[in-house]
Amino acid sequence: MTDAIVGRRSPLGHHTLVIPTYNRPELLRRLVSYYARQAPDLHLLVLDSSRPEIAEDNSRMVAEVAASGRHIAFPNTVPMVAKIRDGLKEVRTPTVSLCADDDLVFPAGLEEAILTLERNEGYVCAHGLYINFGEHGHRLLVTREYAGPSNEAAHPGARVFRLCQNYESMFYGVFRAPDLQDIFVGAAELPSLHFQELFQSCAALLKGKVKRFPSFYAARRSGPAAEPDRDKWQTYYWFAENPSEISSHYLDYRGRLQSFASQHGEASNLDPAEFARVMDICHAIYFSKGCPPAYFHSVLQPLWPGDGFVKQQDDLFRLISPLGGERRLAWAERLMRKVLRKLRRIQRPRQSSVGGYEIAISDLDRAIAASGATAWTIELPVGLKWLAGNSGFHASYQQLCLYLDSSPA
Fold first, then answer.
1. pLDDT digits over 94-123, tens only?
2. Do 49 and 191 fall into the same domain?
3. What is the rounded distance in angstroms from the CA atom of residue 307 to the CA atom of residue 302?
4. 342 and 267 in one domain?
5. Helices in 188-242 by DSSP H: which ranges?
6. Which residues contact 26 (CB under 8 A, 6 or more apart)?
7. What pTM did the predictor assign?
8. Do 294 and 334 have their domain in common?
9. Which among 13, 296, 315, 377 is most buried, taking Cβ atoms within 10 Å?
10. Which domain, by its residues, includes 304?
11. What are phi and psi of 7, to 5 degrees?
12. Is residue 246 located within the same domain as residue 326?
């Protein structure tokens, strides 16, 4: 994969990868070093709000390591969304995408996304499959992150509905530069991180369709956040703490979405009242999925300390029915069948792994040990062990290991 990108004219030469960073110089060096070797044509734009002494070192590192890299320093108090909005104004390539300093977007995935946008005029964003990885010494725990389908509904309201049914962020997707610039101008007007991220995805879908291709695109790292004290991020924490505040922020967010749709969105038959109703219903689905009853009850529990949380209410129909005993038996039978089905699903890959998956995992570990500086070993969940036999995953996983080896000795 890397030889193909280095050895021919690549669409990455017309693409900018924007890397926001904040006080994590080792992770930034690892990422920039990787791209300098594996995708030298790619334009890197580092947006740095680190402490001044760290930003100065980062600037020298980018200049030394990446021939196509640029470094822009920002005050360390600037909000991330404002940093990205202002940094996007400096992009001079037709397409652009984002990547945090601790994650990785595969060069081959970027290429496919760029070409997908070139071939599909009505699409605003393109990306692929995301994996998640955690570093435990030299052992990598790898699992799935995002794998939902493309969002290709004809009506923009229907696209937002599908997003809210199964929310997966498009933060790392490839966009045409003017589109992402417009989106972040709107997002930066919102005061909370939660609605800034939602705005990016919903505004994109109001503007056009999103293509998700079935090959590996990015790897997201499990680890400490760059800003661990960030506020107003998770829906249910905020809602449980201050329902009226999140409702006020939502109304402001909805109004800005409507303004964006009228200026930049795809034409629809929705008048302002209908638009508001569509957004309210869509977001009710999104918010309800992100609000676990047990957590909400724990917030209110001090008001009624003697009344504990009841996970599942009793069904009193069972007590009054003459078939109560039979119904309970039928319920237990259904439960047992469900458990057995799950056990069969779990056992099936384990049985086949004896002859296949475990051997494929061992082969993958040996290949990585032979080709890289570090003998990384992989750990996959039971339901994803089949990935060890997938050639597309092999190529992406090898790039992940090369990236992890990009830290200076």
1. 999 999 999 999 999 999 999 999 999 999
2. yes
3. 10
4. no
5. 193-207, 235-241
6. 407
7. 0.86
8. no
9. 377
10. 1-311
11. -85, 0
12. no
